[in-house]
Design a protein that fits this description.
5 strands; five-stranded antiparallel sheet; Glycoprotein, Type 4 Pilin; single chain
Length: 179
């Protein structure tokens, strides 16, 4: 039985198409996996950038908050102006850190940290985070604790100053949300 040339050619063409189709499907699967991993990596990168920005803000406010507590213990009230603390962090008007632009004192001891670059891709760009001192009512010897945005003071706790935070709760660390 002789195999004709047409049959061999048809077999080779069918095999070639089958292999090309399989290769195309495999390539499509690989591209889909790469796209998924890229989207996941970008989301993790954005989350890490937010954490770095907020960590810088908390770090910069830590010394100012400590000085404010000392000032209140010595004078009986919260400082009313940045100049009363003589803190170089508060006196710097712009570019306080890599992400933090400046800080200001608000009434009754609250402290606002402003993030720079309102044109940036970060959801924190151009926004502010307010830290408010919390005092136990009728107990002047109790330690001051500081609360972030969204904290509603419990009975017997007096918040200091207004909460001017305009950052979405989803971006704030759990320490701000869990009060």
């Amino acid at each position: 039985m002789a195999i004709r040339t047409n049959q061999i050619a048809e077999f080779l063409i069918a095999t070639d198409i089958s292999q090309k189709l399989r290769s195309s499907l495999e390539f499509g699967v690989v591209i889909s996996i790469v796209m998924f991993l890229t989207a996941f990596a970008i989301r993790n990168y954005e989350t890490n950038i937010l954490r770095v920005q907020l960590t810088e803000a908390f770090s910069l406010t830590s010394t100012v908050k400590a000085e404010m507590v000392v000032y209140r213990a010595q004078h009986g009230h919260w400082p009313r102006a940045e100049a009363e603390l003589h803190n170089p962090t508060l006196s710097q008007e712009k570019d306080l850190g890599g992400f933090v632009d400046h800080m200001t004192l608000n009434e009754n001891g609250s402290l606002s940290t402003f993030f720079g670059d309102s044109d940036s891709v970060s959801p924190l760009g151009g926004r502010q985070l307010t830290m408010r001192p919390m005092l136990v009512s009728g107990s002047p010897g109790s330690p001051v604790f500081w609360a972030c945005s969204g904290y509603s003071a419990a009975d017997g706790v007096t918040p200091g100053g207004p909460d001017k935070t305009d950052i979405a709760m989803a971006y704030l660390p759990s320490s701000c949300r869990d009060y």
